[in-house]
# Entry
Amino acid sequence: MEIALHLGAHLTDQDHLVRCLMRNRAPLLKQGIAVPGPGRYRQQLRQLAFDMRGHETNAQTQEALLDGILDEDNVHRVVFSSDNFLAMSKWALNAGQLYHAAGERVQMLRHLFPEARLELFLCLRNPATFLPALAAEDQTGAVLKQIEESDLAATRWSATVAQILEAAPGVSLTVWADEDTPLLWPEVLRAVSGHAAGIDLAGWLAWYHRLVTPAGHAAMRRWFEQNPTRDDATRRRMLAALLARFVKPEALETDPLPPGWTEETVDALTDLYDEDLDLIAALPGVTLLEP
# Structure
């Protein structure tokens, strides 16, 4: 049994991934891949992960848990997705760290599936846009307080990734940059679901509604209907051309900068993020999806 856990991060997906995979449940099930509805597991897995800390789990525990979630038989892979697996959004930044308890949370989830092959998937986002977006979404002021109290130069995704790898040795971790998702979206879907290469999932273009004009989205749909994808590189090149032509100006707008931030702050954090991605790509056990 393979368990694929899509861990977020917050404000990188908004459930587009799980909605697209659920739309394709029937063809995925033919390949032995189950995509249960989030309402059947999100709260349950989170609560069970906490409740089972310190308790022994085994194959029977895993089987009973999956039987309570799945209706399908003859499944060899199950996809779970929640951006709250690692933390609630207002605690995504804590004590200057991104997802400071990521290792512990992954270890707890792994404990629920002791007999499964666990695969983890995490979309990273430039802290220069991620932190302002978290602050803009949070109505409590907790995120802004954490930002103000943090050493931003030390707020690195590589620390989060290293923590996960240390807590779950032998578990594969696939990451990608949110900024690259427009070019990688079909590849992200395939990586998480594990479906066979050469298949375009129905509705995969819905992700681009928020990025391009209606005329642009119609053009994208026509082009890909008339030109079935031959390979990932060809599709990326066409996506890049279509996005450059049809992107909505408002899609490029960013959230207001936190108090005290300047464009120099954004540039400095972006440079550190680029360096961090190179470091993460070199870590054993990590696969970085990139254009």
In short: The chain has a mean pLDDT of 95. The beta strands are 2-6, 33-34, 77-81, 93-94, 97-98, 117-124, 172-177, 286-289. The domain at 2-200+260-289 is CATH 3.40.50 (Rossmann fold).
